[in-house]
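Appendix B, record 7
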Amino acid sequence: MIVRTPPSALRLFFIVQGSVVPRILGKIVSVLLLTLSVVLVDKFLVPLPHISLAAMSVFGVALSLFLGFRNNAAYDRWWEARKLWGSLIADTRSFARQLEMFAVPSEDKSTLLNLIAAFTHAHRGSLRPCDARHDIAAWVGDDKAKSLLARANPADAALSDVAHQLAVLRRKGTLDGFAQMAMSETLSRLSLSQAGCERIQTTPLPFVYSLLVRRTTYLYCALLPFALLGSVDWFAPIFAVVVAYVFFGLQAVTNELEHPFEPRPNGLPLDAMSRVIERTLCDALGQDIPAAMQPENHLLS
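Structure tokens (predicted):
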């Protein structure tokens, strides 16, 4: 995720990091060359058919509405993913407080919080292409990490182990029924947040809708040069490039926000949020608290 103070008006036009320009530059250049070719042929070789600028304006308004709707849907996915991870952080803190409040012995408390840390890293590892084995092993050991990663859903397996440990404490009389119920509700909220993230990851925006918008965008940018003939003349390439930047740029932004867990410049900083949870757990365990992750070159991973 890009983290930086708002740049000045002059620097704004030269910032590349986090911009979609490198991804759509080829399309913009193609539109520029197409428009320039159309203008040159119309001026010096043979008159080309002109399309009504009013008709293209209506076409453009309809396309912008479609793109705006799809962009809003993608941002909703991004924002929901961020809220789910915020809930994970809050519920982790609640679970640590509950262990303290219900006077769980230090050894059992350490085991439970280590499993919560393993859950966090296993969940992060399932959402983005990364190897979380080392981070899991740092909390629960190599053997336990290998055992969790061998399960169909390592993150869910870690929560199941937490539930099992709570059941053992209940049978031993360490926890009463109220304490067990309170911590069980916290585990349920952690599981719901996990399931919500998995739903976002495995359910993209409908492909048929994305296909329609993409085809329409290409068609509009291909026809636009013929609508600009006779109205703006030699300024046609400039107008066409601006329109192509807006429409293709919205497409690229939507594609990036649609996948909020991917390690992209505008993706969610899962590593940094996992470190926030680690800091909470270390504080609860009385261990040295690791430093919070800081942006590197304005990028927080």
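Remarks on this record: The chain is about 75% helix and 0% strand. The chain has a mean pLDDT of 89.
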